[in-house]
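Researcher: Hi, I'm a grad student and pretty new to this. My advisor asked me to get structures for two proteins we've been looking at. I'm not sure of the right format, so I'll just paste the first sequence and hope you can take it from there.
Model: That works fine. Here's the first sequence with its structure tokens right after it:
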Amino acid sequence: MRGNKLTSFFNGYVTVELIGGNVSALINAAQAAGVVIWDISWQKKGHAVCSLPVRDFRRFRKIARSAGVKFHILHKHGFPFILVRLEKRKFFVFGFIIFLIGLVAASNVVWDVDVEGNDTVPDEEVIRLAREAGVYPGQWQFRLEDNDTIQRKLMLELSDASWVGVRIQGTRAIITVVEKRKVDDREREENSGGPYDLVASRSATIADLSGVQSGRVLVEYNQAVKKGQRLVSGIYGNDESESQMIAGAKGVVIGETWYETTVAVPLQQERIVYTGEREISRYPYIGRWSLRMPLLEKVSYDQYDTVRRVKTLHFRQWKLPFGMIEAEHMETNREKVVYPVREAEQLALARAEQDVLSRLGPHGSIQSSKILQKDVKDGKVMLKILFTVRENIAEQRPILLEKSEDDT
């Protein structure tokens, strides 16, 4: 029944009033001729109201004249009559469509860029960097890069920020800046959990003591120390003295030590390189379906990587269920590279240096390197390397206070 009503609406139907003559004979003759009639209601004798499709109206009119029944149309229903009414008001309809297009377009433009969460970083600086990243008033939202890319660009430029967030809310681009927290010495000491000695984290030779900030230094330059040996005491005064002051030790002690590592590099490698050629295709999507045309979107490259960006349209603060997908196809080539043994050694050495540096921390540096063993077999260069490094060997160890019997 629902399907019949929907079909009638799209095809159009009319409600007519039948007056005089033999109305019953008219209805029977019309149905016998294949005219579809429904919603028949008898008002009084010789007077009825019914509905019929537009396509059967002419046949019905001929039968009504033969039966001597007069009729007139009470209502016109359905899609064809809506089109006729719109045709009469086409300028109004055209203007309304233009208005809707303009409204949707305006809702997908960034009109304001707001900065929040910053105290010391100026708003003007953040807005200037955001403009360089493509976020500014008047920019189309579907032309913006994805949020992760914009955040990464801003993080590289804002050295005082520990995190930067970007979100689009309606027609506003909101940039949230989380600034690096600067902790003063007193707060560090309060949060340190108590006074500490500084002990050696590994065996080494003392190279620099200038980074010690507080405490009583117990070692000298060029002195060899063992792992766990106390370097800086957090207690002022002699160990035998009764007048001792516990202040805690702080600072950096640079020691010279050694790392041995083994690394292997293939002489023949395959790598993917970008040629610099790229093609961009755009196609709309509705809901979960993308309206792609493979014949028109055919990529002219044999090998390529594709990065897709979804540009969602908005109406004020609501996301619309349709938008655009931008697909960027970047041509790639696979290259086989054969390295000479000497060059492979340099690559192996560079990798080993990066590995060692990643373990040294912010105060570490490589002083020298020495290849202990070199071997070429199975298409690989294998190196055993000894690195002489300098790093901060000081680690904290709590000062254990002994209680006397009188302290109970």
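Researcher: Oh nice, that was easy. Here's the second one.
Model: And its structure:
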Amino acid sequence: MTRDNTFSTSDRRPESLQLEPKPEMTDLKKELLENISDMDKLNSLKEQEIDTLRSSDRELETEISNLQNVNAWVHPDIGISSKAMGIMNSFINDIFEKLAQESSRLARYNKKPTITSREIQTAVRLVLPGELAKHAVSEGTKAVTKFTSS
């Protein structure tokens, strides 16, 4: 400082007190910033998972009521316990997930961006055994035909 209490350019800190970033520190800072970015991505993924869980609760209720409707339609004189309903729901979700994974894999193998009824049909043949696959393909074909004609 000069006598009139102003700073001059000649007033500098000694070399030992200079606050210049060291190269390792900038690398560390970059890494920390990348990790923070990754954490932000992770937090947004967690929020998406929470939203998915919330929507899956609603879907679960819908699936259970759909199963109850099908049961009432097919066997009006027979009820189903909530435990059995939970087992059926788990079974349906498991089969659906396996079919979705297999059809997705088939689309990727064929370098196609879209899963079509052909991939679904092939996935059914790969996932389900023998006669069950034949019936499922037949019913699926019938449903697609009915949907496209209406």
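Researcher: Is there anything I should tell my advisor about the second?
Model: You could mention this: The mean pLDDT is 75.
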